[in-house]
Design brief:
The complex is a heterodimer of chains A (339) and B (562). Chain A has 339 residues and is an all-alpha fold. Chain A contains 15 helices and no strands. Helices cover 32% and strands 20% of the residues of chain B. Classes of the chains: A mainly alpha (339), B alpha+beta (562).
């Protein structure tokens, strides 16, 4: 097996234990916190008989370890338990909603990286000049302002009182494109429905930017500082002495070496945003999984809490694996060590 | 090589942009949504509905905003305001409320009579009412719907589960359905405002395997995403977690006016700032009545928005835990009740409303007008405190608590005012915000129920029984409605007797007696019936107030003014 294959196999092996541990922890916590979720779901006029019936159906009167193993057995067969709020299988609920959150986070990350990296390079190459100061101020703004506040301001400016350019809510105004990936932008392009693509794009622009601003700020500052550090190294001096163009030195040689710290942040942020996009989803009425997860916590919908947490955990594990693989590209020493 | 790669990337980028521009200028571009409707033979017919829209509230459609997840419009499973509104436009109720008089009147049922001392109810159904499939409603559909509701046993079924056995509803003939109760239940007819009829034949054809014996899942899976009713609207499209689209049912039995809406969009918008913007910009037409007072007052200032204000049957009160020290002492409760500044609560916190003298709304038969609302009187409060078995120090050592729902600002303000009022008697009060899940859990036992709680109590159907029984009968203890834990043998006996008393005047007298017992016992601080407010675009006509949860939002009543 190649080193690449060994790396993936090892990570997957660890991931199984990570997810199992996560499931035990969140399963236990969700069931022992005080509250009356069944009564809450059935309403105050439900009789005690109805409440007890539902509790029996959900095995809530069994010891917690029996509940867990019953849940695990079902979960491995795609049955993640019934949601107390929606009445559906949690797996079905998450499948319905996860693509919306994934699409939002992907676009937010593309924005954050696509703007943050060049901005960091520009700030580094214009150190102590107005470009650098501007990047410092914007980064401060980006990490200080809460995402939901930025979202509301965007709505007021771009969808309301000042300009009425973009829609206030939702994922799409018209009918969704034919389903392939459940990502509207991708599916509309695959179906060559460019009107639908524009519809979906105009809806995702504001929430994605609101979500990605803080990540952009972090990426920009990390790239800036690492680029400045790289700029002081001998190989850069040698490249300049050889007369290589500035952009080639910056974007091909320096950036590649400077990118590893930013890559770590990008990986962490991706997983973080999957679970924490809920405030932006709330403001824009975005039908995503994060909002579903928060609603589950508020209503103590414990099967949904476990389901969403597992998905977020999976997102972290996956992005960490991808980041580790990309380290090998950016830093060949990593590949050599693996061999 | 590098140059040709750059050339290629530039060409590809230009091609994508050109294609996008071409796509933008082409006609349509949205795909059609396939929805399943019913044909006259009860089978499925795929129709296509283009649900793309030129903008909120455009064409002949209305946009209604709600703030909670709805994942089923099954009429047997609706539990709260949102799900009631969502389902009742697909399904008609057997009875409804006359908005002019507030009285219950027939809807799918034209007559009823009761025999066997109120245990046998015969309902004569309206003839010639078509389902969305085209098939005409029969008594068997009414019986099937009730048996289904009882078997599924969720949500609204709790109203009838304790008095009707599963499978007990039957069709006497094609026009008469019969409900049989195990014990006389006088409010049955009024309670049927929550009972909606499904197309029994259609649902039976779509029953899947499940827990209900011969009936499988009783069509639960099918009715989660399909409509099978007689209602004014059919299910047009469902975007999970986002929007439900209602399409006009042309053959609706009550007919249509020219300018009724062809389509209504029921959109989920949980964030109040977004709701306000959508309403102000005219991109939404109507919102629900469960936003904060400040939201409606802000929207009222806009020229394009109407905010009607009505007397609501929804009570805001403070149940006092009668099974926990020191509020187990009636004199302590009396002292607390007389210490409160009611005028500030009505005028400044709720900006209006009607003072309550008990749990029964003033708009309902059975409301006792002879009982005066409790007034703030610090001398009376002090006198009661002096008579109580607890001294001020003892009460403060025990520690009085007031629990409220953390995201409801009016409940918080009332708590803080209460804290200030009680300090004038030397009493300390801890004001605690709690999540709804924790609050519901606390109400399950007297030991964990707070001394006082800020609670809104709505009416599911127009009967004083709802207001009294759910709060004070021993069988109903353990919910937020019965947070006082107050029951007596005499009160229990009166409530049970009232349920069996068919004669309305006799029943009313029993409700009066029950309220007198409560007035003497001070189990709750009955604060007020807050004003009912909602908001709609001023281009909408047809607003009528029915008084009971959700019934205002019958889409067929509304139209766009010319």
């Amino acid at each position: 097996m190649s080193s690449f294959g060994r790396l993936i196999a090892r990570r997957l092996f660890h991931a199984v234990f990570v997810l199992l541990g996560l499931s035990v922890l969140i399963f236990s916590i969700s069931r022992v916190i005080p509250g009356a979720p069944v009564r809450l779901a059935l309403g105050p006029t439900a009789s005690q008989e109805q409440v007890m019936k539902v509790r029996r159906e959900m095995k809530l009167d069994e010891p917690i370890y029996i509940q867990y193993f019953a849940w695990l057995q079902d979960a491995l067969h795609g049955d993640w338990g019934q949601s107390l709020v929606t009445g559906n299988n949690v797996f079905y609920d998450i499948v319905q909603r996860f693509p919306a959150t994934l699409e939002l986070v992907l676009v937010a990350m593309i924005f954050a990286v696509g703007v943050g990296v060049p901005a960091g390079v520009i700030a580094a190459t214009h150190e102590h000049r107005w470009q650098d100061h501007f990047s410092r101020l914007s980064a401060l703004f980006g990490v200080s302002m809460p995402r939901f506040w930025i979202a509301i301001v965007f709505q007021i400016v771009f969808a309301g009182a000042v300009f009425s350019l973009l829609p206030l809510r939702g994922r799409i105004a018209g009918a969704p494109p034919p389903t392939v990936t459940h990502l509207y932008l991708v599916d509309s392009l695959l179906a060559l429905q460019f009107g639908t693509f524009i519809d979906a794009l105009t809806h995702i622009v504001m929430p994605a930017i609101a979500l990605g601003v803080a990540t952009l700020a972090q990426v920009m500052r990390l790239v800036r500082s690492d680029m400045i550090e790289e700029g002081a190294k001998n190989y850069v001096t040698a490249e300049k002495a050889f007369g290589l163009p500035g952009n080639l030195i910056n974007y091909k040689y320096k950036l590649k070496n400077a990118f590893t710290s930013a890559l770590t942040i990008i990986g962490l942020e991706f997983g973080f945003l999957i679970g924490n996009a809920f405030l932006v989803e709330l403001v824009f009425a975005w039908p995503g999984m994060a909002r579903y997860g928060v609603n589950a916590i508020v209503k103590q919908d414990f099967n949904a809490i476990v389901g969403v947490t597992i998905v977020v955990g999976l997102a972290f594990v996956t992005t960490n694996l991808v980041v580790d693989l990309m380290y090998g590209y950016f830093d060949p020493r990593g590949r050599i060590q693996e061999n | 090589m590098a140059s040709s790669r750059r050339q290629f990337l530039k060409s590809a980028g230009a091609g994508v942009i050109a294609a996008s521009v071409a796509g933008c200028t082409s006609d349509g571009g949205g795909s059609e949504t396939t929805t399943t409707t019913e044909d006259g033979n009860g089978g499925d017919t795929d129709t296509t509905t283009n649900t793309s829209t030129s903008g909120g509230g455009g064409e002949n459609e209305m946009i209604y905003l709600h703030d909670n997840l709805i994942d089923s419009v099954d009429p047997a499973r609706h539990t709260d305001f949102q799900t009631t509104v969502a389902s009742m436009n697909f399904y008609d109720q057997v009875v409804t409320i006359d908005p002019e008089t507030g009285k219950v009147k027939g809807n799918l049922v034209t007559e009823y009579n009761t025999k066997n001392d109120g245990k046998k109810w015969n309902l004569t159904i309206r003839e010639g009412v078509p389902f969305h499939s085209g098939r005409t409603m029969e008594a068997s559909d009414v019986a099937y719907s009730m048996n289904r509701t009882l078997a599924v046993g969720q949500g609204i079924a709790s109203i009838w589960q304790s008095i009707m056995e599963k499978g007990s509803a039957k069709a006497v003939d094609g026009k008469t359905a019969q409900f049989n109760t195990t014990t006389p239940y006088a409010p049955l007819f009024a309670s049927l405002v929550q009972f909606m009829v499904v197309n029994g034949k259609r649902v039976k054809e779509n029953e899947e395997s499940g827990d209900y014996g011969d009936h499988g899942d009783y069509g639960k899976a099918f009715l989660e995403k399909h409509s099978a009713g007689t209602g004014a609207y059919k299910l047009g499209a469902w975007k999970s977690g986002d929007e439900i689209v209602y399409e006009k049912f042309d053959d609706y039995w009550q007919g249509w006016e020219d300018n009724n809406f062809d389509r209504v969009r029921f959109q989920l918008v949980p964030e109040v700032s977004t709701v306000k913007q959508l309403m102000k910009q005219g991109e939404a037409d109507m919102i629900n009545p469960y936003h904060g007072t400040s939201t409606y007052l802000e929207l009222k200032k806009e020229d394009n928005i109407v905010v009607p204000e009505e007397t609501s049957p929804r009570l805001f009160n403070l149940p006092m835990n009668t099974r926990r020290e020191p509020t187990d002492d009636v004199n302590v409760r009396k002292a607390l009740a007389h210490a409160i500044d009611y005028q500030t609560i009505v005028n400044d916190i709720f900006k209006g409303g009607t003072r309550a003298n008990g749990p029964v709304p003033p708009t309902l038969p059975g409301h006792n007008d002879d009982i005066e609302p409790v007034k703030q009187d610090l001398e009376k409060a002090q006198a009661a405190l002096d008579k109580s078995d607890y001294s001020v120090d003892e009460i403060n050592n025990i520690g009085l608590t007031y629990d409220y729902l953390s995201n409801v600002s009016t409940e918080k303000k009332v708590g803080l005012l209460l804290q200030q009022n009680l300090s004038e008697l030397g009493l300390d009060l801890e004001v605690k915000p709690e999540s709804w899940a924790t609050l519901s859990g606390n109400f399950q036992k007297p030991d964990t129920t707070a001394h006082l709680s800020g609670i809104f109590v709505g009416m599911q159907f127009p009967s004083a029984d709802q207001a009294l029984y759910l709060a004070h009968h021993p069988s109903a203890m353990g919910t937020y409605i019965s947070g006082s834990w107050f029951t007596t043998d005499e009160l229990t006996s009166i409530l049970e007797e009232a349920r069996k008393t068919i004669d309305p005047e006799e029943r009313r007298q029993l409700y009066y007696e029950a309220q007198e017992i409560l007035a003497d016992a001070y189990p709750c601080v009955y604060l007020l019936f807050p004003p009912y407010r909602m908001a709609y675009n001023d281009s909408i006509g047809g607003w009528k107030y029915y008084g009971i949860s959700g019934m205002q939002f019958q889409w067929r009543n509304f139209y766009r003014k010319q």
